[in-house]
Amino acid sequence: MEAVALDPFFTKLTGITEEVIEAEGVTLQDALSGVDSFSSGARFWSWGKDELNMVAISCYIAGIDAPVPAQRFDNAVKLLLAAGMPIEDLAKTPSIKLADYYNVEHPPLQGHDALDDALSVRTPCNTS
């Protein structure tokens, strides 16, 4: 499959450049297999329908079978509603702002960065 140039909007949004991909990038199959292995079968919670919008469509375009079954994905909005977050707050709170919403201290975070998104919703722990 022929590589497609990154859209400048994507680079501005994520900070990922062609050079980063050339130096650190892996195939979609390897990336998804690595995530599957790392997760040890746990459910993936995302802000939306990532199994459809990102995984399934990307696998279809790449011509590969998705190594992570769609049933292992779910929408984190369900968790927040079940925890009592008002729908009005949910509608105006992106995932990167959840730590702020719940007054959880955190280092500066960049949206649309997988690690920072995960850090924004992790359970704080005492490491001292």
Short structural summary:
With 128 residues, the protein is mainly alpha-helical. It is 48% helix and 5% strand.
Summarize the topology.
Layout (H helix, E strand, L loop, with lengths): L7 H7 L3 H7 L3 H12 L4 E3 L3 H13 L10 E3 L1 H6 L4 H5 L6 H4 L12 H8 L7
Parallel strand pairs: 1-2
Written account of the structure:
The chain is mainly α and 128 residues long. The protein has 2 domains: 1-73, no CATH class; 76-128, no CATH class. It has helices spanning 8-14, 18-24, 28-39, 50-62, 77-82, 87-91, 98-101, 114-121; strands at 44-46, 73-75. It has a two-stranded parallel sheet with strand order 1-2. Strand 1 (44-46), helix 4 (50-62) and strand 2 (73-75) form a beta-alpha-beta unit. The radius of gyration is 16 Å and the shape is globular. It starts with 7 loop residues before the first helix and ends in a 7-residue tail after the last helix.
